[in-house]
UniProtKB/TrEMBL annotation:
Acidic residues bias: start-end ranges: 55-69
Gene Ontology MF terms in the entry: guanyl-nucleotide exchange factor activity
Gene3D superfamilies: Dbl homology (DH) domain, Pleckstrin-homology domain (PH domain)/Phosphotyrosine-binding domain (PTB), SH3 Domains
Organism annotation: Mus caroli
UniProtKB keywords: Cell projection, Cytoplasm, Developmental protein, Differentiation, Guanine-nucleotide releasing factor, Membrane, Neurogenesis, Phosphoprotein, SH3 domain
SH3 domain sequence ranges: 454-515
InterPro entries: DBL_dom_sf (IPR035899), DH_dom (IPR000219), Ephexin-1_SH3 (IPR035635), Ephexin-like (IPR047271), PH-like_dom_sf (IPR011993), PH_domain (IPR001849), PH_ephexin (IPR047270), SH3-like_dom_sf (IPR036028)
Quaternary assembly: Interacts with CDK5R1 and EPHA4; activated by EPHA4 through the CDK5 kinase.
Classification lineage: Eukaryota, Metazoa, Chordata, Craniata, Vertebrata
Protein's name in the database: Ephexin-1
Domain PH: 331-443
Length: 552
């Protein structure tokens, strides 16, 4: 049945959303974490520690569905996540809308369809919150007359980049989502609109995000060198409209939104019926968004990597045949100091401090360079090898002197010979991190989810973490990660489920997901999101795109 929402009613709802996007995002992810904790504890208590395999999991899910069908009150239970709950917002959820309450559709729809409606509703309302924050960035900061006089046009261009283009796209995108909502209170789909915008319009995000390195540097320089700029920004941040949020949180809005939009589509994809048309549009939208996010990440990395490679090249002096460091396809993975063992391996030499001497390693994605640090912040290169010709081996526990020692073999070094180095790290985690970076194909303690195992140790991020080194992984709240390696001194090498990015992070930033059923469910959802391209779905893609345009 068609139940149109009056345009004025829907616009009033959008206007009443009181959260800035930064607030919405924090509330959303914190609620997501808490919901997982409750599910983990509840299911763990019910399962009583029993082992859950794939077939058993499917049987339990079928049983749960039968119970929900037999018990109407459970069908109408509200989902845990109340994303827009705040004093300034009249509505929390899709099913809180007066039109929904009075239409009777909650008595008709199945529980999974209600959850799907909430997921699509969240995408729309969060876009409205995002647009509100973007508008504040432009009207309150960018168009401030005093700020315009302080900033040189080139500084303003670097600081705000193409944010007007980003806001214009968001406005058109939100308008189309609003029109779709107005067609029927039961939302037909939103992913077809997302797909079209990701394919045709979201390139503005790539331009904005690729400028991030220069944007951050310019902002820091302005704060340090222009007192008038620093004072004005502090004054503007105190305005009640900013709700205590810093100017920098507004500048990073586009990057946060494009990554979050991909996760919102993933959430829809988990709810739609398999092999349905809506699954097809969700998969298409997710694939396009993945391409945009990947291009954004590459844009940021390309800017910073080029400058980093030039800086490293200037610091190197070659004792061997010179190796060209700068290459458009090369980037730094890890650098740092290790202790090299020298001399015969006798009990006598093991007792002396002279057994080890310092060396410095630069590991790139395709090359290892081994140096000694010399005066003047320079590095003297005495050996190198292609990364593909490196092998590592951990030593058995041989006492305190050989703690955290591993063997590095260069199958073909700078002299076209095999070379072996016995290296000592400062800690167990540092040793593991070097071994993982030097030989990425080496088998880790736990197997990656890509092996399609039904159970694997997992954690969820409960404190955000910003990577401090190239081999580390930046974590956002509510990220779910598979554990590939753990150290006794508090570090985890993990793989994030939603994008398969790998890296190290402190275990204190996460908490383990203990229940095997929840872990299995997370993996199944991930497999579904990243399923292989279906030829039949590809043939239907253009038809869906045309149908979407006809609906406009």
């Amino acid at each position: 049945m068609i139940h149109p929402i009056p345009a004025d009613s829907w616009r009033n709802l959008i206007e009443q959303i009181g959260l800035l996007y930064q607030e919405y995002r924090d509330k959303s992810t914190l609620q997501e974490i808490e919901t997982r904790r409750q599910q983990d504890a509840e299911i763990q208590g019910n399962s009583d520690g029993s082992q859950v395999g794939e077939d058993a999991g499917e049987e339990e899910e079928e049983g749960e569905e039968e119970e929900e069908l037999a018990s109407p009150p459970e069908r109408r239970a509200l989902p845990q996540i109340c994303l827009l709950s705040n004093p300034h917002s009249r509505f929390n959820l899709w099913q809180d809308l007066p039109e929904i309450q009075s239409s009777g559709v909650l008595d008709i729809l199945q529980p999974e369809e209600i959850k799907l409606q909430e997921a699509m509703f969240e995408l729309v309302t969060s876009e409205a919150s995002y647009y509100k924050s973007l508008n504040l960035l432009v009207s309150h900061f960018m168009e401030n007359e005093r700020l315009k006089k302080i900033l040189h046009p080139s500084e303003a261009h670097i600081l705000f980049s193409n944010v007007l283009d980003v806001m214009a796209v968001s406005e058109r995108f939100l308008l189309e989502l609003e029109h779709r909502m107005e067609e029927n209170i039961v939302i037909s789909d939103v992913c077809d609109i997302v797909y079209r915008y990701a394919a045709d319009h979201f390139s503005v995000y790539i331009t904005y995000v690729s400028n991030q390195t220069y944007q951050e540097r310019t902002y820091k320089q302005l704060l340090q060198e222009k007192a008038t700029f620093r004072e004005l920004i502090a004054q503007l941040e105190l305005d009640p409209k900013c709700k205590g949020l810093p100017f920098s949180s507004f500048l990073i809005l586009p990057f946060q939104r494009i990554t979050r939009l991909k996760l919102l589509v993933q959430n829809i994809l988990k709810r739609v019926e398999e092999r349905s048309e809506r699954e097809g549009t969700a998969l298409d939208a997710h694939k396009e968004l993945e391409m945009v996010v990947k291009a954004c990440n590459e844009g940021v990395r390309k800017m910073s990597r080029t400058e980093q490679m030039i800086s490293i090249q200037k610091k190197m002096e070659f004792k061997i045949k010179s190796v060209p460091i700068i290459s458009h396809s090369r980037w730094l993975l890890k650098q740092g100091e290790l202790q090299q063992m020298s001399g015969p391996k006798t009990s006598r030499t093991l007792r002396t401090k002279k057994l080890f001497r310092e060396i410095y390693l630069f590991l790139f994605n395709d090359l290892l360079v081994i140096c000694r640090q010399i005066p003047g912040d320079k590095y003297q290169v005495f050996d190198s090898a292609p990364r593909g010709l490196l092998r590592v081996e951990e030593l058995e526990d041989q006492g305190q002197t050989l703690a955290n020692v591993f063997i590095l073999r260069l199958l073909e070094n700078a002299d076209d010979r095999e070379a072996t180095y016995m290296l000592k790290a400062s800690s167990q985690s540092e040793m593991k991190r070097w071994m993982t970076s030097l030989a990425p194909n080496r088998r880790t303690k736990f197997v990656s989810f890509t092996s399609r195992l039904l159970d694997c140790p997992q954690v969820q991020c409960v404190h955000p973490y910003v990577a401090q080194q190239p081999d580390e992984l930046t974590l956002e709240l509510a990220d779910i990660l598979n554990i590939l390696e753990k150290t006794e001194d508090g570090w985890i090498f993990g793989e994030r489920l939603h994008d398969q990015e790998r890296g190290w992070f402190p275990s204190s930033m996460t908490e383990e997901i203990l229940n095997p059923k929840i872990r299995s469910q997370n993996l199944k959802e991930c497999f579904r999101v990243h399923k292989m391209e279906d030829p039949q779905r590809s043939q239907n893609k253009d038809r869906r795109k045309l149908g979407s345009r006809n609906r406009q």
